[in-house]
Structure formats: C-alpha cells, structure tokens
Amino acid sequence: MSTESVDRLFEEFVSAYGQGRNPDLRDYLDRAGSARAELGRMIDRYLAIAPIAETDDETLVLLSARIAGRTPIAEARERRNLTVTAVVERLREVLGLATSLTDRLQDAYEDLERDWLDPRGVRQPVWAALEGIFGFNVRKLVTGPEPEPLAWEAVLLRRETREGPASPGTAAEPRPRDEVDELFRSIPE
Amino acid sequence: MSTTGSNDERDLADARLLGAGDHNALVESYYGHIVRRCRARTRNEPEALEVAAEVAIRLLDELKRGRTYTVPYRVVVNKVIDWKRNEHYAPAKAKEVELGEHDAQADDPYVEFEADYDLAVLLEDLPPREYDVASLRLLEGLEPQDIADRLGIDRNTVDQAWHRAKRKLLEKLDEY
Fold it and tell me: Are B158 and B133 in contact (CB under 8 A)?
C-alpha cells in the first residue's frame, strides 16, 4: 500500500474518531494490508494524545471476560444479572419455539456461551434475539478476525445431551434435525 | 462513543472516581482506550486482548495498593499501555516503574511522562495557523473543508497547514 493510502486511512480514522463515531480500528488495519504496522503506529501515536473516547459495551464485556477468564457471552450474561434459564426462556419466546424444545434450546445456548459452537452456523434471528436480551451486538463479541473452527468440528464437541450419553457399544440413533439445529447449527454460508 | 473535545472533563470525572475509591469503574472506563491502543500495535486480536488485560490488571493492582498520582489518570493509563506492550514484545528491554507499596512521600513516577500524552503541550510549539488547524482536526475531528469554513480561510491553506502540523506532531511523538 502506498504512503498516500496509509495517510488517507489515517485521516479517515482521525475524522471518525474525532467525531465520536467509534471507528473499529481492526477494519482500518485490515484495509492497510502490508502497511498495517505503519498505520497502527500512526494511529497509536494519535490515540495517545487525543481526547479519550468512552468505552462501548462490547469492548467492556470483551476485556472483562478476558480478565475474569469467562467467555464474552457468559460475561455479558453475568453483567446483566441473568441466569441461563432466564436467557433461554426469553430466547424461546422471541424465536417462537415450542416449550417442548426448551431443553434442546438450553443445550444449544450453553454450547454457544461456552464457545463450543461455530458462530458462523448461528442464524441471524438468534443474534437479533440475543442483542435484544443483552442490549448490544453479541455477534460482534464472538466473531473476531481470527480463523474459526470448522462448523461440524464445533458441533461434535457436545457428546452428551440432556437425553444422556450414547450407550457404549451401541450405535447412536441419528436424531432428526429440529428447529434448534436449524437456528444454532446451520451450515455456514 | 463520544469525545469531549478535550480531556479536561475526563480528568475531572477521573478525579471524582479516584476520590470516591471507585477503582473498578475508573479502570473500566478506560477499557475502550486500552483495547484500541493495544489493537493498534499488536499482531492480532488475541494478542491485543492479552496485553490489554495485563494493562487493566496492573492499573487495578496499583490502585488497590493505594498508589496516588499527581498527574491526570489518563497519563498513567497511557504509560502503562506503553510499558506493557514493550514488555510483551521485548521483555528484556522493558523498564517499568516497580509496583511496590505506595510511599506517600515518594515522588510520583509518572510525572516525568505527563507531557508525552498532552496534546495541548504538543500543539503549543506550532505556529498559530497550524495550531488552529491541528486543534480543530485532532480535538473535534473536523474535516478540512469544515475547518476552512470555521476559520474563514481557503481549503488549500488548511491542507497545507494540516500537512505541516501533522508531520511535526508525528515526528515529535516518535521521540517518546
């Protein structure tokens, strides 16, 4: 990337930050490509002297989770003083699922909260419902720029369900996919 | 998110939280800044969060041990970010202020760094035109055309003044 382009990205960032638009630095660094380090240095020098911006909810949860050794979604739930049961019940209502699917929904939500699910396989209505419950963009917390595990590897992490573990020595009966699978374990696009 | 145009309000709010002993709220209010600066200079997101967590823990530890500061708290935060990042990438070279029990009679070790993080100090050496333009650009994020309108000068003059001011400021910051 040319110096001019790095300079343009820096100018864009300064405008957005100065106007309080909370620019996501990661986007700018990604756009800088091979000049990532150079742009990062320029922006860092600016941030060290610029007025300090307020902390948004997502960042607060992200760093608090890191410090507490929790996953971001678990941290978000703790900060809202919500139990898993309460979150699941609200999710069920918002997603319009039958009460008979509550246990399956709880398994899926707990997998998501523990970071056992590939977030790419979680459908938009779930993210929208979680945003309604927690009050901020939960998807942003769990879909960073790092490579993510393959969806079906993540799905296989849960070996036991509420119906109990598969009996040793017997082939587990394949369970038909239900609405919860469609919402939480879809094939990533 | 909002920026206030200067850090004066921020410093007052920080002083209130420090006075009230609300250390968690104080440090948490800097999480965005800490993460942003860590993202700027680390290679990836996990590293940025790792260093940011080290910064936050160090800040909380200092407060818990009763350390007090004679500089604005943001100076402390910025200095600890610099230290922790250096420590992360070059542990042998990193020279941090030792975190010991606070001695009320001892000098505040952060004082010598205060000017490094003060935009007003950095700007004050600029000629008047560059000072005006750089202040509006950096403090309020105004676009060059808006600055021209605000100051009643033409756009080309703004561009030239900003170009010169930016070069000088970045050079000056490189010295720190």
Answer: yes
Asked if this assembly's ipTM is beyond 0.85, the reply is no
Helix (H, G, I), strand (E, B), or coil: what is residue A161?
strand
Residue B116 touches chain A, beta carbons under 8 Å: yes
Q: Record the tokens describing residue B171, joined without a space.
A: 């050079």
Query: Do A12 and A28 contact (CB within 8 A), yes or no?
Result: yes
State the smallest CA–CA distance between residue A78 and chain B in angstroms. 16
pLDDT tens digits for B36-81? 999 999 888 999 999 999 999 999 999 999 888 888 999 999 999 9
Contact A67 B37 (CB under 8 A): no
Residue closest to A61 by CA, chosen among A84, A81, A77, A83: A77
Q: Which helix (H) or strand (E) holds A171?
A: none
Query: What are the chain B neighbours of A44 within 8 Å (beta carbons)?
Result: 37, 40-41
Phi/psi region, residue A44 (left: phi>0; alpha: psi -120 to 50; beta: rest), is alpha
| pTM (predicted TM-score) | 0.81
Q: Which of residues 16-75 of A touch B (CB under 8 A)?
A: 16-22, 25-26, 29, 40-56, 59-60, 62-64, 66-67
**Chain B partners of A54 at a C-beta cutoff of 8 Å?**
1-2, 29, 32
Q: Within 10 Å of residue A83's Cβ, how many Cβ atoms?
A: 9
Distance between CA atoms of A28 and A10, rounded to whole angstroms? 8
**CA–CA distance from B130 to each of B124, B161, B174 (Å)?**
10, 5, 19
The residue among B112, B119, B95 whose CA lies nearest residue A47 is B119
